[in-house]
Structure of DUF3108 domain-containing protein:
Amino acid sequence: MNYKLLIFILLISVAKASSQELRSVQEPVFQVGEKLRYKLRYGFITAAEANIRVESTDTKFEGKPVFHLVAEGKTAGSFDVFYKVRNRYDSYIDQKDLSPYLYTESIREANYRRSDRARFYQDEKKIVSNKGTFKGDGQTFDVLSAYYFARSLDITKLSVGSKFSMDYFLDDGVTKLTIQYVGKERVKTALGYFNCLKFSPSIQPGRIFRKDSKLYLWITDDGNRIPVKAQVEILVGSVTLELASASGLKYPLTALKK
């Protein structure tokens, strides 16, 4: 199981506004101290776990205060015995417009080690990383900043069938992700039932996904906009991502109906 699949599934929640609307964030729906924990199941087996949190920091970029976002992922159970993964992702984002300044990765997968760094210059529409310099068409995000930015967008006027896109930087290039709004749905999780907004992002068949694979994501229909469940069929079997716990939320989790 490739742990980057977990990061990808979390990332799909970001594409909820067109490029013309990306600067519409009024106020973050998250706060310092928020912690989210996820479990990824391959069939009935828990294959990986992830913790995502917002930390305070005295660090400033261009004289501006920032949020420090952290995501840590690791394999679990038998997967941890045969292919141990301990990955960490950090992003520093502007406290007002939530755009990223710096993104880093520390990858530890079995005997493989890698550290990456990317500095974002939004005014110049470029990203300078240890792999080179890359240009974007407009606002460009890393995987973590995109996740938190999109949660703060106003999506109350979405209509069923609407498709939107967003640019993000990952590995060695800028990618555009497209997603379709499916509608509202109540979904069952280990924590209880959630009233959710359901999305279906586009995916490319290949090493992981089948030609006819469908990917679905459920996000809380409340002020927090937390992804609580994602499900996708892969070449062999299926993968489910599910929220295991949430704390330090800015708003009451009213979407949860136990």
User: Anything to note?
Assistant: Residues 151 and 225 are 5 Å apart (CA to CA).
